[in-house]
Design a protein that fits this description.
78 residues, mainly alpha
Length: 78
């Protein structure tokens, strides 16, 4: 019984150690690849966005929108 328990703990330690080492190597290799790609292929600077036209149509429908929302809230509460 004692031998089986020690082998189980041994297998657990080796398994968890292997996973820890693999994930650590994965993190470092991903960070290294990110630096290499960023060095050889830098991102283009963002282009300034054109100013959007003011929403005139939305201002005209505000009264109707308020009425619809009020009716919906009233219907929901009753």
């Amino acid at each position: 019984m004692d031998n089986l328990l020690s082998e189980g703990i041994n297998l657990m330690v080796f398994g968890m150690g292997f996973v820890f080492v693999f994930l650590t190597l994965l993190v470092f290799s991903t960070a290294g690849m990110s630096k290499v790609v960023g060095k050889f292929f830098p991102e283009a600077p963002p282009q300034p966005k054109a100013k959007a036209a003011p929403a005139v149509a939305a201002a005209n429908n505000n009264d109707e929108l308020v009425a619809v929302m009020t009716a919906a809230v009233h219907k929901y509460r009753s």
